[in-house]
Amino acid sequence: MGAAAVLDPQSDTVLQAIGDLTDGRGVDCAIDCSGSVAAERLCIEATRRKGVVAFVGECQQELGIRVSPDLIRKGLTLIGSWHYNLADFPRIIQVIEQSPLIELLISHVIPMSEIQSAFELSASQQTAKVILRPWE
User: Fold this and answer.
1) Of 1, 28, 65, 70, which sits most exposed with the smallest number of CB within 10 A?
2) Across the strands, what pairs with 43?
3) What does the pLDDT look like over 24-34, one tens digit per residue?
4) 30 - beta bridge partners?
5) Contacts of the segment 21-27: beta carbons below 8 A, 24+ positions apart
6) What is the pTM of this model?
7) What sections of the chain are H helices per DSSP?
8) 86-128, pLDDT tens digit by residue?
9) Is residue 131 within 8 Å of residue 103, measured between CB atoms?
10) Are 76 and 51 in contact (CB under 8 A)?
11) What is the set of domains in the chain, with CATH numbers?
């Protein structure tokens, strides 16, 4: 998909690897879509001073943000987004339709009538995105 580097977020040395790739600065922006406390924490720690961190994935556990060292001293901007503005929908669909990577992101398109199979397939973690066709 064109990534310059792929790192294992569960590695004990992932922060050091990010530092090595960014000359010690950290990333400009980080986004977590998983809702994993460990991933959210990594986003905060890996982002440079005055960087931006966005959380999209819902997490049912407390992250434990340390206001002074995590936000004030680093000057981070945190963004949380549970959904997007409906007015943005046509542009979002346009980006999706024009993406050269879409075939790599969607592994299955399944009719709504087979929703149980779609859930089982998704739960197997052997897929990319599974798309349901609502009128089939």
Assistant:
1) 1
2) none
3) 999 999 999 88
4) 53
5) 22/48, 26/51, 27/51
6) 0.70
7) 14-21, 37-46, 89-98, 102-105, 115-123
8) 888 899 889 888 988 888 888 999 999 999 999 999 899 888 8
9) no
10) yes
11) 14-80 (3.40.50.720), 86-133 (no CATH)
